[in-house]
Amino acid sequence: MLAVANTIDTVNKDYQCxxxxxxQRYISRNITYGFHQEIMSGMSSDKGLEIMQAGxxxxxxxxxxxxxxxxxxxxxxxxxxxxSKAKLFMELSTDNSRYPVLRFYNLSxxxxxxxxxxxxxxxxxxxxxxxxxxxxxxxxxxxxEDSVKAYEGDYPDFTLDLSYNKISEITAQHIERLxxxxxxxxxxxxxxxxxxxxxxxKHLLKLIHNKGVWKxxxxxxxxxxxxxxxxxxxxxxxxxxxxxxxxxxxxxVDVEYVVDYASIISLSVFALFxxxxxxxxxxFRREIRILTYTRFHxxxxxxxxxxxxxxxxxxxxxYSSADQEWVSKTFEDMEESKNESMSKFRFCLHHRDFxxxxxxxxxxxxxxxxSRHTVIVLSRNFLNSHYCMYEFHEAFQQSIIERKxxxxxxxxxxxxxxxxxxxxxxxxxxxxxxxxxxxxFEDRLVFALSYKSNKRLTSRSDSESTSRTMNSQISRxxxxxxxxxxxxxxxxTDSVFPPIIxxxxxxGKTQKCENHL
Length: 517
Hints:
By secondary structure, this protein is of the alpha/beta class. Helix content is 40%, strand content 11%.
């Protein structure tokens, strides 16, 4: 054998090629070579190494053979069922041989464990080959070349049979690539598919369950992939790919990863929630301060405290007679309300509480002085009333005297800023104002009027006693005109609009206040 291996390049063509011009079917099936056990047991290690080296020389010498065997009529070639095929048998079969009309090549059951390059590039070695049978071997990996698409030549449709091998991995990329090779078809039936959880299996299942893809003509040839059966894991053994989904895959969860991931999500959600709370608190801090006081009777920290004052009224309400209906309903309802936070207030309304016999101006002065606040109901009617404007100036002067925010303004309607008198415009920037259509109008008004401290100058009973004495004295004072009728005195424009001190004069330029409730 070693002698033949060393002299293969000297063998003549007739011996090497046989009947190359006439042979049509060549069957060399079920032939296995082997060394006798006695020979193998008595062979030294040096002899084994010599045999291996002789094999390497044999391949090199075949490439130096000066002729080619051209089997001009061979259409059927069967080398199946053999346990002793050389690892390089495909190289030996193609280096110096040509098969111009071979159509069927059977290499099943020969124990090969890989797809040789000559098989992947079949179109270069077998011009007319239609079917190559590599079934029932030990091939574990699907390999093929896309270059067949670019090969120029007149070759027929080719089928590569890889059924009953040990190919466990088929990917969506494999199917997509194969669908783009129109002249080649690979049969992968009865391979032990591994359906264990992996990204490749997930992608394959998505492709299999994509009905739109399988309507394409190029994919229809590979619809059999849908019914390939899983070999592992055990739970999915025997199930077809089309019958399982991604949820059926037994994906092992990395507990440490999940815990970390869950922690990150939890912290992110908490941080986002905290940011939202901070933004809400910052944006609606006034509303929160008001509602916590009016609804829950809680005074939040960092809120200025007010000293209790012994005055008859909580507020003198200055308004135009044209707005009397709204004023009466609003303030009289508050006095009669069952809500404890509202019913505690007492308001001075000129249509109800002015002392008969006194001039309007004296009533205004007394009402402002005996009230903790003056509520200005600002409307166009108010601006057009001299008496209302006088009441406003008296209330403003009282704020200066008491050195506190005495005024509260209710905007009954929208009035452009350029239509407001300059002194009223400045006042709105300093004192509390509330819009009539505010969603929490009553809460804002209650908050502005409320005494928000536990410190008192005198007791409530002392305040009521003082108020009754003052009322008795005021009731005896009247201003009667010459005809015996009570009538307001005639005053000049200068007395209605007296010079006033600006808010900066008594609040100080460094004092900051939030004037919009």
